[in-house]
Specification:
The complex is a heterodimer of chains A (about 675) and B (about 375). Chain A is built from 20 helices and 25 strands. Chain A is an alpha/beta fold. Chain A folds into four domains: about 260 residues, Pyruvate-ferredoxin oxidoreductase, PFOR, domain III (Pyruvate-ferredoxin Oxidoreductase, domain 3), CATH 3.40.920; about 180 residues, 3-Layer(aba) Sandwich (Rossmann fold), CATH 3.40.50; about 80 residues, no CATH class; about 120 residues, Rossmann fold. In chain A, the strands form five sheets. In chain A, strands 12-11-13-14-16-15-22 form a seven-stranded mixed beta sheet, sandwiched between helices. The N terminus and C terminus of chain A are likely disordered. Chain B has about 375 residues and is an alpha/beta fold. Chain B has one domain: Rossmann fold (3-Layer(aba) Sandwich). Chain B contains twelve helices and twelve strands. The chains are: A alpha/beta (about 675), B alpha/beta (about 375). At the A-B interface, helix 1, strand 10, helix 9, helix 11 and helix 12 of A face helix 1, strand 2, helix 3, helix 5 and helix 11 of B.
Chain lengths: ~675, ~375
């Protein structure tokens, strides 16, 4: 899978851009030479690069990564990012638990993942080296801040000798740069003390990388001015460090090569860089505007969902009310209370919060009020891995309530898609008067990509019709009289004269909504609530099947954030001359009406998930299809190469249980149930 | 001392500045026709059969509420009653207003969302000692500290009735119940002390059978801007009959009840024999009126900003109910949560004319041309 790239000539210093493990894209490199200040500098054209920045939690790696991403997005490359950080805010400095990293994949063509492995690794200390080196393929470019490789820091992570000097890194293209001392030197007249000046080393590094990859710099300078407008000294120091890093690259002999990655072709339109949590927040604000209802968010802080609360709290001017509740239960309770009053009630959380909200979701099912529950999934069970990604809340979302309590469940597939998923969640909630669970995850939440900015005029009209008059034959108001098509009940908001009514968690009599313990009524109401949710499938578009060759015998089906890695794996499969069909689900409940028929078309169906096979279980149960479940729960997204190997094995008919290179980290279960393959009921 | 202005909690200014409920809601409300704020008690009754046990104190409270509410001049469609779970929480079904019978302990949270997003409504919470103080204790204290515009009626019968007789968080130590055959070893909450500890802006206490006293406290609670908590001693004649007999009995009642009247000296008991004076540690104590100088007798001041005085009042009574102050302990003016939330929305709107399209585009967008 790996190999050296013949198109690149290592420069005098021995620096090469690293190697590509990608089989999903053709690799082009061309070299030109320019003279700068008497130095001969070459410019190498690349089609894609994966960079990983790693440092201490306090080193500002996430900020550096985000700034580099913004520069890259503004430049016009396509990109995907993968922030990866510990749950601790500041683990002890220089230790392995404190390492924080940010990976960015950018290219002159469309990319689907943040990259399996970095081509370039920047490490700010020995801990960052130790925690990340195993991911850097041999020959990759390794930039290290030599100032931080002190005996004390080396000892903290168990290095007996300095790897920058002992020859142990010979297999990589190592460039040791005294990033910290060059930063303090550049800032010696800034008026800052040494400690304070050192904190700008991330901006020095960003400047260096900006030079290396020909990134525009104006955006970062504007950002620093804006960010520190009340601290002009700090702003000036960061800008000076950023410029010093850039100029260092331009003049040093240590870096003789810089790289050019041309903008990616994109459909005409307006774009911005956006993370999943940002896109989700904007989708919720948009849903409020599109429905004409005030948005009311009741939420309790929880990683990795809190950024949605932060973002929504900024949009009061658009009528968004945010309520930071005393706990998860109050968050959803207040949202439901607001929905009762005619607002678009929303609560945002992660898996542990959904567990606490379950009873109120049940009340929303019973009272048939619109409500959007956002679950930004993280590693579980219990507190689990708060900052890592996982898809293990699917069954909780589908079934985690007492009684027969069906709830629509939807999932976005990419950071930008979180916007559309939020609008869709609101559409279902308002149209069908039901709670809806939106399953995002940590990877989508913090990952970023360029996003085509939609216009309000192109978004759907979500305005609901409130009841304003009695709807009963005798002039009474029947709150549980249903729309014959959607089965949605009449929604009258308090304040509406003559329509006073009481709702609650006790079983309702059909039509009147009065308390009823009648056996037949209960049976009818349980089935009616189920039928209402099942009926949502009628409003869904036909399922897209991506099978460009049209002759695939194997289909791969996924949901949520695995879309990118599965898509990248499919590219590899197709590049190898094989055919595969990709189906990716937005709606997990109800499942699309045509899904059973689609799955039945294929000899084999593979379902990769970041859990232990939750969707696979549902598909097997619902369609009697012998789904092959491929699972991984490492807190990180799938690697495209690994997935491609799994898919290839299935396509080539490799027997079950084959040991993959990564067998210690993943699990492919090919269940040998004698169910007829492809049969659907 | 803080002067308090009593204003009607209900102002009809739908869609007007200062009451920014959404146009969609305002239109719907207006489309339903003229509001009728002239009600009689019977207008608040529903066609649902009341299903409390015969003789339950809840009947008396329901009647008192239905009789007094029309005097507030609020249309019934503008009233919402939210309850939790328990005997008392069936209350909304019997009131011809909007209502939600929600889940155990969560009514204050649900009502908070409703009141914060609909400041035009009169929102009430009906709860019990188990619902409010045990499973929902967290929501209660946080609602009180936020001062959301709600009126909370806490029916305290010192027992779990709907689950058939277990001890509650207000049951006295030693109480023998189904779950405490050897007597309860839990120290009980004093709901008034708890509410004052959370800096509640309005705290009152009344007896279910005392129509006049109950109505008087309820009226003040309803007129209060912010969260009002009214503890109502309510007899459960099935599982805890006679729990408040000491205070209800015409002979013993006056001995142990301290009526709270703002501006009046705290003198009580047959012939005014007892009174409340300050003790040496900043608290209060009971004294014999003829043993102290008149100037030493505390004059009740419900409007004191500092809750310590009201708290000291609440500590005069013990778990056996002797020396129970009844009436309004505290009533102070503070900005309400919903008002402040509305103000922030209005300020934000005044400072920004950004549209959704502006928001979606953000600060750092770029254009790809064909």
């Amino acid at each position: 899978m790996t190999g050296t790239n013949p198109g690149i000539t290592p420069a005098a210093s021995g620096v090469a851009p690293g190697m590509h493990t990608a089989a999903d894209a053709e690799f082009h490199a061309a070299e030109t030479h320019t003279a700068t200040g008497g130095l001969v500098k070459s410019v190498v054209a690349l089609d894609r690069v994966v960079i990983r920045l790693a440092g201490d939690s306090g080193d500002g790696m996430q900020l550096t990564g985000n700034r580099f991403t913004s520069e890259t997005a503004a430049f016009g490359n396509d990109l995907k990012t993968l922030p990866n950080f510990p749950a601790e805010i500041r683990a002890p400095t220089g230790t392995l638990p404190g390492v924080s990293s940010f990976q960015l994949h950018f290219a002159d063509h469309g990319v689907m993942t943040p990259g399996d492995a970095p081509d370039v690794l920047v490490v700010m200390n020995p801990a960052a080296l130790k925690a990340n080196l195993m991911d850097l393929p041999g020959g990759g470019l390794l930039i290290a801040d030599s100032d931080e490789f002190t005996p004390r820091n080396l000892a903290k992570v168990g290095y007996a000798s300095n790897p920058l000097e002992d020859g142990s890194l010979e297999g990589w293209q190592l460039v040791s740069v005294p990033l910290t001392s060059m930063t303090t030197e550049a800032l010696k007249d800034s008026g800052l003390g040494k400690k304070e000046a050192e904190r700008s080393k991330n901006m020095f590094t960003l400047g260096l990388l900006s030079w290396m990859y020909h990134r525009p710099t104006e955006g970062t300078i504007r950002f620093l001015e804006r960010q520190f407008r009340r601290k002009p000294l700090i702003a000036a120091a960061n800008i000076a460090a950023f410029r010093a890093g850039y100029n260092y690259g331009d003049t040093t002999e240590a870096f003789a090569v810089s790289y050019e990655i041309k903008p990616a072709p994109m459909a005409p339109g307006r774009y911005r860089n956006i993370s999943g949590n940002q896109a989700l927040s904007l989708g919720l604000v948009a849903a409020g505007q599109l429905s004409g209802l005030p948005v009311f968010l009741g939420a309790y802080p929880i990683t990795p969902a809190s950024d949605i609360l932060h973002e929504l709290s900024k949009h009061k001017a658009l009528g968004v009310r945010t309520f930071q509740a005393e706990d998860e239960i109050a968050g959803i309770g207040a949202a439901l209370g607001a929905s009762f009053g005619g607002a678009l009630g929303i609560t945002t959380t992660s898996g542990p919060g959904v567990a606490l909200k379950a009873e109120t979701i049940g009340l929303a099912v019973m009272t048939e009020l619109p409500l959007v529950i956002v679950d930004v999934q993280r590693g579980g069970p219990s507190t689990g891995l708060p900052t890592k990604t996982e898809q293990s809340d699917l069954l909780q979302a589908l079934y985690g309530r007492n009684g027969e309590a069906p709830v629509p469940v939807i999932a976005p597939r990419s950071p930008g898609d979180c916007f559309d998923a939020a609008v869709e969640a609101a559409r279902i909630a308002l149209t069908y008067r039901t709670p809806v669970i939106l399953l995002s995850d940590g990877y989508l939440a913090n990952g970023a990509e360029p996003w085509a900015v939609p216009a309000q005029a192109d978004l759907p009209d979500l305005r609901p019709v409130f009841a304003t008059e009695p709807n009963g034959e005798d002039g009474e108001f029947l709150p549980y009289l249903r729309d014959p098509e959607t089965l949605a009940r009449a929604w009258a908001v308090p304040g509406t004269a003559g329509l006073q009514h009481r709702i609650g968690g006790l079983e309702k009599a059909d039509r009147t909504g009065n308390i009823s313990y009648d056996a037949d009524n209960h049976d009818f109401m349980v089935r009616t609530r189920q039928a209402k949710i099942d009926g949502i499938a009628a409003s869904l578009p036909a399922t897209e099947v991506d099978d460009p060759d049209g002759d695939a015998r194997v289909a791969v089906i996924g949901w949520g954030s695995t879309y990118g890695p599965i898509g990248a794996a499919c590219r590899r499969i197709r590049a190898s001359g094989r055919s595969i069909a990709q189906v990716h689900l937005r709606h997990l409940n109800p499942l699309p009406a045509d899904l059973g028929e689609i799955l039945a078309r294929y000899d084999r169906v593979v379902c990769p998930e970041m859990n232990l096979g939750q969707l696979a279980m549902v598909l097997r149960a619902k369609y009697l299809v012998d789904v092959h479940s491929h699972t991984q729960v490492r807190g990180l997204p799938f690697r495209a190469a690994e997935l491609a190997a799994v898919l290839q094995d299935v396509i080539d008919g490799t027997p079950a249980g084959t040991t993959h290179e990564t067998a210690d980290r993943t699990d492919t279960t090919i269940l040998d149930t004698p169910a007829p393959t492809g049969a659907a009921l | 001392m803080t002067a308090i202005e009593h204003t009607s909690p209900h102002v009809h200014d739908l869609g007007m500045p200062g009451n920014p409920i959404s146009a969609a809601i305002a239109e719907s409300v207006e489309a339903s026709g003229e509001k009728n704020a002239t009600l009689k008690a019977k207008d608040l009754k529903t066609d649902q059969e009341v299903r409390w046990c015969p003789g339950c104190g809840d009947y008396v409270i329901l009647n008192a509420v239905q009789s007094f509410l029309p005097s507030l001049g609020i249309a019934r469609e503008d009233m919402v009653i939210v309850s939790g779970i328990g005997c008392s929480s069936r209350f909304p079904y019997y009131m011809n207003t909007y209502g939600m019978h929600s889940i155990h302990g969560r009514a204050p949270a649900i009502a908070t969302g409703l009141a914060a997003s609909r400041p035009d409504l009169s929102v009430w919470v009906v709860t019990g000692d188990g619902d409010a103080l045990s499973i929902g204790g967290n929501h209660l204290i946080h609602t009180l500290r936020r001062n959301v515009n709600l009126t909370i009626l806490l029916f305290n019968n010192r027992i779990y009735g709907l689950t058939k007789g277990q001890y509650s968080p207000t049951s006295e130590v030693g109480k023998v119940t189904k779950s405490t055959p050897m007597g309860s070893i839990d120290a009980p909450f004093n709901p008034v002390s708890l509410a004052l500890g959370a800096d509640a802006t309005f705290v009152g206490r009344a007896m279910d059978s005392d129509r006049k006293g109950l109505t008087d406290v309820l009226r003040q609670a309803a007129e209060h801007q912010g969260t009002s908590l009214v503890e109502i001693y309510q007899n459960c004649n099935i599982f805890n009959d006679g729990a408040f007999e000491l205070l209800k009995d015409p002979t013993t009642g006056p001995m142990w009840t301290i009526p709270l009247v703002h501006g009046e000296p705290l003198v009580f008991g047959p012939g005014g024999a007892s009174c409340v004076v300050r003790d040496d540690f900043g608290g209060l104590r009971i004294a014999e009126t003829n043993q102290v100088d008149a100037s030493q007798i505390v004059v009740h001041d419900a409007h004191r900003e500092d809750p310590s005085y009201a708290f000291a009042l609440s500590r005069l009574s013990s778990q056996d109910l002797r020396y129970s102050p009844m009436g309004v302990f505290r009533s102070v003016a503070k900005p309400t949560y919903d008002r402040m939330m509305t103000d922030q929305l209005e300020d934000a709107a005044a400072q920004s004319s950004a549209t959704l399209d502006d928001l979606l585009a953000g600060n750092d967008s770029w254009t790809v041309s064909s």
